[in-house]
Request: fold
Amino acid sequence: MGGARVCAAFFALIFAFSAADDAVAGLGQPGASIARDRARMAAATQTARTIAGGVEHRMTLANGTLVKEIENANGAVVAVAWRGPGRPDLRQLLGAQYFATFQEAANTGHGRIRMRRAPRVHRNDIVIQTGGHPGAFWGIAFLPGQLPAGFDPNAF
Amino acid sequence: MLSDAGGMMRQILIVLLLALLGACSDGGGTTANTPASAPTPTPTPTSTPTPLANFTTVTIDAGPAALAAGPNGYTATNLPYVSVTLCVHGTQTCQTIDHVLLDTGSTGLRIIKSVLNANMLAGLPHQTSPAGNPVGECYQYVDGYVFGSVRTADFSIGGESVASMPFQVIADDGAFQTAPASCSSGGGTALTTVQEFGANGIIGVGTMATDCASACMVNGGSGAATYYDCPTSGCATVIARAANTSAPFQQLPNPVAAFAVNNNGTIVSLPAVPPTGAATLTGTVYFGIGTQTNNGLGNARILTTDSAGDLTATYKGTQLPNSFLDSGSNLYYFVDSGIPMCTQTNFTSFYCPPSPLALAVTLTGVNAATADASFTLYNAYTQPAASANAIPGIGANPNAVTGFHAIQRSFDFGLPFFYGRNVATAIEGRAAGGIAGPFYAF
Reply:
């Protein structure tokens, strides 16, 4: 366990210094990128199971955060979700392009009654919803046009 | 002080009368304020009891002046503020800071650097890492994150105090000028100014005893918080910090958990607000639950939470397992595709029912206890008066999404839920009313 953590931390360091990493990880990328997510976030455990129209990958991070990624029949990562005490590395998990989309949503204007709520994205090509409070955050992001048939975001 | 038998009997009599009064009340929640109405017992020669000081005033108003400044100026809505006093340890160099957000949904005291005066900034010592460098911290909120230094100060609020308590100086300078990538990659807005933050600081008095618990107790570990070693070159290495609620502190404690007494939680007691709202509203936060004559639970329902501080809300037949009571959320945040959202500019995702709408919600604790949390939802655009800063019964769809894509797992009971109630928040591992925290009671 301790050895695995040191090993995972070593890989995390390697990827932290790899500038090209962000560009090839996240939503829309080939399923092979999931291994990089796992290393970057120093996942303690990981499993995969076949689901209708794809593969569901699960990893548990050192602090107990559960991260799930869906790979569709074409081998692309088309949905991610997380639940844990802190938000995971979303730049890694969403990929640089969709992380930028998420950050733009965080900075949109306000009216007379200001909201204190999570950034969210709802477009035809990308949906990102997050929520919770410090110590208990959750979120989901997916590419609506590329989901396996019958995929239910709420069940995921 | 209360050594004579007559005084003791009088105290016991008052406690009994208060308990009876609590048992007879309608659940509207006035037990925290009842001492003034207690009947006067037969006069006996007594010593004067020491006045209780385990409370402070909570004010909901337009917010600190900095909010209204410039082209992005605004006034606060449903943000409960308290004042805190910080002193350089063991000196008379002190500063009282108003408009600090009272937040039952987070943990730890955090002050924006620009609010602290030059003497305080020069005098407040930094917490040091095992490497001998200052400690930095990143902390996540649902809408963004704060980054800054961890310093210590003699802290007091109402009549309670903690010596050399660690707190965060948000947007401190020097090595803390730039948030590390591992902090900003969690996403959301970098909250660095009073205007962005909506307050001069925040005092998190939620269910957690420290702000990161076990998640930060290993090197490289993080939860809502991440702690850094910060040499002059900047903060990069993530360090382990112990979760102590008394000296020697490492993580930021829940300030209430660090008090010598009255340290098992809080009761936030706010008056009801008319549907059009109020420009200013004043209430009280009591420290301790069932520890004094002014902070009894009365007939409140106790709903224990999971370790994350969450309850299950049942709303229109759907169970929402990540629900919570949060004085730091300024609205009811929930998903209901059947309620029209406002169409006016800048009111996207607020709910605008055509007439006041009664909504039935039940909350269930981990202990299987249930409590009615029903409320009336008002039109967020037409109902509040223009001058209102305390507005009841307004809500929003947190993700502005309806239908198939809408994720339904949470009902966030923000400050409007607290109006006209006493809401107790008990800290993990601390018992109150004979039940072990964490729990909420109302």
Q: What stands out?
A: The beta strands of chain A are 45-51, 54-60, 66-72, 77-84, 121-122, 127-133, 136-142. Residues 2-16 of chain A form the longest helix (15 residues). The radius of gyration of chain A is 16 Å. Chain A touches chain B through 48 residues (CB under 8 Å).
